[in-house]
Amino acid sequence: MPLHSSGADSFSIFRFEGRRATVFFWSVLFGLTFLRFVLASSLGITPDEAYYWLWSQHLQSGYLDHPPMIALFIRLGTSLWGDNAFGIRFCGPLSALVGSVALFRAGRDLLASRAAGYRAALLLNATLMLGLGAATATPDTPLVFFLAWTLWALGRLICTGWPGWWLVIGAFFGLAFDSKYTAVLPALGCGFWALSTPSIRRHWGWMLGGCVAGLIMIAPVLFWNATHGWASFAKQGGRAGDWHPLRALNFLAELAGGQIGLATPLIFVLFCTGLIWCLKHSGEKSVARLLACLCIVPIAVFVQHAFGGRVQANWPVVLYPAAALAAAATGRRIGFACATGLIVTGLVTFQGIASPLPLSAHHDVIARQTADWSGLRERLDKALPEGQAVIAGDYALAAILAYHRPHHALFSYDKRWVYLGRQLDHPHRAILILRESEQPDLPASWLGQPWQQHPCRMLRGSPMICYKLIPLSLPEDIRMYSLP
Question: Are 297 and 193 in contact (CB under 8 A)?
Fold first, then answer.
């Protein structure tokens, strides 16, 4: 049975109630979507986005770092709008809009309350993770999108009682896995919930059908891994066995701090309150147990990982849609928390678009990732003589230079390019480019005397990050990966 959320079903926020509150919700949602599109078209492409764009130019059923869904999202956007920032990021704001509708409907079905659905969708959109993250092209974008639709299908299962919805649930979990491997964590949580709930467990045949539907969806990813030595699974899962308990407190503090920042502080508190509420009511309420399982399994895995290494701040976004529903289930007021989150997101967005504050490169994270890559390419082209080949060891630097299409041949020796089918060739008259703070990782016998010229990326007329150029004398039998 659906879980009746605490509080009245009438949706109210700030001083808006009923129909006016509903109009306010949709106005905020469409307004945020418009701002995300503006931000998506205004900011320069980041190195990781350029890397995923290269994936979209060479579509495969798998890649070393992630499953292929982000490449498909980018390919769809660029086929409509071209290989520019707007095209690359187009599916992000659009999927956030459509995914928010799915989350609203999930809240309506799971919590038996349209108001709870509005609250959950508004909470998720007020986080910095979705508010800013949906304007960029990362694997988290399709991950959150398909998880929202998975929750919708779970809501349909509970609301209608028809077990055939397990096929849809399995398919959406599979598509989420095709976006990012961490989707397996809420899928496991869903399995624990189903096995612990007698009314659900008796439909084991349909549940197995859902597992088959999920396997069909992830079969291309499994096939790619099987034919590439399970390279992607080994890369992503190989860190699970690390163990550094003496640094655990530091890693755990970073994990908590990252979530407070990405969710924004007050929404983080509401997420935690909602999870505690669901745990308290999980004994007698099936939906509370479902939301608790969807959150607890990822949390347990990330806490365990923190005893061996750093948990990247964006990893826990896999539980944000379920956490938003858990927070909405409590019936607590969300107006001030959402307002704070939206203001923070708005300020960060305005800084990214207009840069009103003259922040240094160290503090301006958006500029450090997006600013003046095309300018670096132009300065590099002017500094290099005709026929000079450029070698970038770092995959991210190689990807962003490839996106901006330098006039010189571009090579990289990062092994991940072999999984993208790049051809090996011998670079003639090669020069290595790397940040001034970095040291080359090539044999010293290959390195010449660094050039005096240090091309820089500029921020408000001042050098932001500069790069050194080191001529190379490569043996004739050395081959490197030709880009793009």
Answer: no
SS (H, E, C) the chain: CCCCCCCCCCCEECCEEHHHHHHHHHHHHHHHHHHHHHHHHHCCCCHHHHHHHHHHHCCCCCCCCCCCHHHHHHHHHHHHHCCCHHHHHCHHHHHHHHHHHHHHHHHHHHCCCHHHHHHHHHHHHHCHHHHHHCCCCCCHHHHHHHHHHHHHHHHHHHHHCCCCHHHHHHHHHHHHHCCCHHHHHHHHHHHHHHHCCHHHHCCHHHHHHHHHHHHHHHHHHHHHHHCCCCHHHHHHHCCCCCCCHHHHHHHHHHHHHHHHHHHCHHHHHHHHHHHHHHHHHCCCCHHHHHHHHHHHHHHHHHHHHHCCCCCCCCHHHHHHHHHHHHHHHCCCCCHHHHHHHHHHHHHHHHHHHHCCCCCCCCCCHHHHHHCCHHHHHHHHHHHCCCCCEEECCCHHHHHHHHHCCCCCCEEECCHHHHHHCCCEECCCCEEEEEECCCCCCCCHHHECCCCCCCCEEEECCEEEEEEEEEEECCCCCCCEEEEC
Alpha-carbon span 346 to 351, nearest angstrom = 8
Q: Is the CB of residue 433 less than 8 Å from the CB of residue 390?
A: yes
**Scanning the structure block, which residue is given the tokens 């508190």?**
269
The CA-based angle 467-468-472, given to 5 degrees, is 135
Contact 111, 7 (CB under 8 A): no
For residue 123, the model assigns a pLDDT of: 96
Please write the tens of the pLDDT for every residue from 180-212: 999 999 999 999 999 999 999 999 999 999 999
pLDDT at res. 241: 58
pLDDT tier for residue 240 given thresholds of 50, 70 and 90: low
Distance CA 73, CA 52 (A): 10
